[in-house]
C-alpha cells in the first residue's frame, strides 16, 4: 500500500510539473513591430535591385521604376499607424497554485469513486478473494452433480473425495473414493489416501481396503515415507508400540537429524516407548509423525503453529485447526492440508505433495506459498465469521522452521 501511494504521488508531481511550468515561466517579449519588419524587407528588396542593375539583369529604366514602387510602399507604411508591439506572456502563479491543489484532490476523489480502494488493504483483498462456505459447498455440489451425470469420470471422483476429506465429510469422501474404484489403485499416493481416510474413520486404525492398500505399498516401496507414517500410526492405535517404533525409527533414519521431522518422529517414538514400558492403554491420538512425510525439499514446508494468548478464551480444546498451503499467486484451492485440534497447540506441521487435493495442483508446482492456519468453530475447513486465523506469506516451497501465529478473529 505504501509503495502504491509513493508511486501515485510521484506521477502526480510529474504531471503538475509539466502543466505548471509554462504558467510560471517568464518569457522575453518579442517587441518587433510590423513596421520594422516591413522596413527590413524593403531594404533587402532595394539591395537586390542594386545587384541586378550592377549585373546588367535590369535596365536603367526598369531599375528606376521598381525602385520608385518600393519607395512608394515604404512611404505608405511610414504614413500609417504603427502596429502595437506584441504583449509579453504573463506568469500565472494563481492558476498554477489552483492546479497544484485541485488536480491531486480530483485524482484521489476519482480513484475512490471509480477505482478499487479495498485492494490497498491486503487483509481486505484476501478476505474478498476467500470463497465463502456456501460458495465452496455449491462448487462441490456442482461437481457431485456432474459426476452423477458422468459416473465414468474416475479422476473427478478422486477430486470430489479429496474435497470431502478436506471439508471433514469423511463418510462422503469414502463413498466418492469407492466410486473412483480402480483409479484409487493407480499410484501409491492415492492408495495411501484411502489408508489415511480409513484412519480418520476408525480412530487411527486402518481397516478394510485401506489396510490392504497400505500393506501393498509397503511391500512394493518399503521406504515410502507416508506409508511408514501411516503404518506406525496404525500400530500405535492398536497398542502395538514395538511395531510403531520400528516403522518410525526406519523413517527417522531417512530424514535430516536436525530437521523438524526428526524432532516429531523422536517425540512419537519416545511416547510409544513410555506407553510400552508402562503398559498404559493407548489413547486416541493425533498422528504423532504425520508431519514427518519426507519428500524432496521443494515439495514440502514445515514449521509450528501456535495460538495467540489473547485468543485462547475464544477457542475450545476440541475445536478443529486446519493448517494449509495456498499458492501466493493463483487459484485459491488449498495445495495441501492437515488437521489438528486446539488442544494440540502449539503443534508442529509439515505440508507436502501427498496431501494435494488434485494431481494438477501440488505444493511443489507453486513458486511462492501462503501458509494459513484456521481454528474452525463449525469444524468446516471453509472460513466463517468468528473463526480464528493466522498466516505467513510469502513462503518458498521447501522452507522449514516457519512460525505461524493464529492472532485474529474473522469478521
CATH class descriptor name of the largest domain? Mainly Alpha
- Beta strand %: 5-15%
Order of helices and strands: HHHHHHHHHHHHHEEEEEEEE
What gap, in angstroms, lies between the N and C termini?
A: 22 Å
Largest beta-sheet characterization: 5 strands, antiparallel
Q: What do you see in this structure?
A:
With 411 residues, this protein is an alpha+beta fold. It has 4 domains: 2-27 and 89-120; 34-79; 132-292, Serine Threonine Protein Phosphatase 5, Tetratricopeptide repeat (Alpha Horseshoe); 297-409, Immunoglobulin-like, CATH 2.60.40.1120. It has helices at residues 2-24, 34-55, 60-79, 93-114, 122-129, 133-149, 154-166, 170-180, 188-201, 208-220, 225-237, 241-252, 260-278, and strands at 300-307, 320-327, 336-341, 347-352, 368-376, 388-396, 402-406, 408-409. α9 runs antiparallel to α10, α10 packs across α11 and α12 (241-252) runs antiparallel to α13 (260-278). The relative contact order is 0.07. Mean pLDDT is 77; it is low at 28-32, 278-286 and 288-297. Pfam families: Ig_CycH (PF23892), TPR_CcmH_CycH (PF23914). It is found in: Cell envelope. Residues 303-407 form the Cytochrome c-type biogenesis protein H Ig-like domain. InterPro entries: C-type_cytochrome_biogenesis, Cyt_c_biogenesis_CcmI, Ig_CycH, TPR-like_helical_dom_sf, TPR_CcmH_CycH, TPR_rpt.
